[in-house]
């Protein structure tokens, strides 16, 4: 059933347009950026640099382009003409006007580096990821947890009859192939395809780039560069280890996760939600879903969460440490089972006092839907992740 999902970032986007001369919205392709900015700014002119003629004008004659779109304009896929930013600086400085340009881009690696040099202090930056579970809960249809993890959050999967097993292969070939392989010069197509799948098999694991390179028959530097490109394209992300020792030897390598569990499930060969529910990948995909849900909900408020994991050399681990003010603020254990057991609190109870995190900021997120309060902390499901976000 097709539906329209209201994006939680709408209010934040509108607020930033009253604070900055320009606002930039980045995120993966097909995450809903164009739809959101058109809905938020209906009176603005809209131009997409994916149109070859428009891109040619912006690239070769940026002054004329900016004269034509002088104000109250949405410029979509602006990374195709990074030269615009240098000229845009003068336009924005010519008069004190907020919300003059709304810029979108799906290539973070090009966009933000250029903005930091040319538009520093003049642009507010937001990241729009695929739909969150909470956004779907507020819509006309909220999928079952396993259906959500299998389907993922790309809006087209909910606004059209598209199926995940059809959508994701097309998504990879149409968007990821175009951005990463053709435009950034990745030529080892077979190895790169395998690398994507290898990334999916490493969800929730401590990152070993050398091992991944060996699995794909490429050298370390190639694998490391591919990983950077996938991060910059909002496909994968690294969760860094928490850096404070607390008197123990710690694991210092990051963990790997995907920004969307549906894409990861497709790469893993999961054929439907029932297979995911009973398969070996469910635990890691649920952990991935919890982490990305926190990121999505926090970024919708215009904030960037400081997320880490903690593990010592004896494999004692806290799945998620959320930092605030330079100190651990919340600690979270993630359990995919829909049956809660109090033993899940063992590590966060043991380490909570050492880290200075009180029990009201200790959480177990499990695969169920009921909230449970205990003297050791809170037990919540993915449906109540907003409690963690709002407490931050």
TrEMBL record:
Residues 21-136 form the AAA domain. InterPro entries: AAA_14 (IPR041682), DUF4143 (IPR025420), P-loop_NTPase (IPR027417). Residues 177-337 form the DUF4143 domain. This is ATPase (AAA superfamily)-like protein. It comes from Bifidobacterium cuniculi. The lineage of its organism: Bacteria, Bacillati, Actinomycetota, Actinomycetes, Bifidobacteriales.
């Amino acid at each position: 059933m097709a539906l329209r999902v209201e994006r939680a970032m709408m209010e934040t986007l509108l607020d930033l347009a009253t604070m900055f001369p320009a606002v930039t919205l980045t995120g993966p392709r097909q995450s809903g950026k164009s739809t959101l900015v058109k809905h938020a700014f209906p009176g603005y002119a809209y131009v997409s640099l994916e149109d070859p003629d428009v891109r040619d004008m912006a690239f070769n004659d940026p002054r004329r382009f900016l004269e034509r779109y002088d104000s109250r304009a949405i410029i979509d896929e602006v990374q195709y003409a990074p030269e615009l930013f240098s000229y845009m600086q003068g336009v924005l400085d010519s008069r004190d006007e907020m919300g003059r340009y709304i810029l979108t881009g799906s290539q973070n690696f090009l966009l933000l580096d250029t903005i930091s040099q040319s538009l520093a202090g003049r642009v507010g930056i937001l990241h729009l990821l695929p739909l969150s579970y909470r956004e779907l809960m507020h819509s006309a249809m909220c999928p079952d947890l396993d259906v959500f993890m299998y389907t993922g959050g790309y809006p087209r999967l909910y606004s059209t009859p598209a199926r995940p097993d059809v959508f994701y292969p097309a998504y990879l070939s149409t968007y990821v192939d175009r951005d990463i392989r053709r435009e950034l010069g990745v030529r080892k197509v077979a190895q790169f395809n395998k690398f994507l799948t290898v990334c999916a098999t490493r969800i929730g694991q401590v990152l070993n780039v050398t091992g991944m390179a060996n699995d794909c028959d490429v050298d370390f530097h190639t694998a490391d560069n591919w990983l950077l490109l996938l991060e910059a394209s909002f496909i994968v992300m690294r969760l860094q280890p928490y850096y404070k020792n607390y008197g123990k030897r710690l694991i210092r390598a990051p963990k790997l996760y995907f920004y969307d569990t549906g894409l990861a499930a497709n790469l893993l060969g999961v054929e439907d939600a029932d297979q995911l529910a009973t398969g070996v990948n469910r635990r890691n995909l649920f952990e991935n879903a919890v982490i990305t849900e926190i990121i999505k909900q926090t970024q919708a408020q215009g904030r960037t969460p400081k997320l880490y994991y903690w593990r010592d050399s004896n494999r004692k681990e806290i799945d998620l440490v959320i930092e605030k003010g330079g100190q651990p603020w919340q600690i979270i254990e993630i359990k995919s089972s829909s049956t809660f057991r109090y033993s899940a609190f063992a590590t966060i109870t043991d380490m909570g006092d050492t880290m200075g995190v009180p029990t009201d900021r200790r959480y177990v997120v499990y695969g169920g839907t009921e909230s449970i309060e205990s003297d050791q902390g809170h037990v919540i499901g993915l449906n109540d992740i907003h409690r963690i976000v709002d407490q931050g």
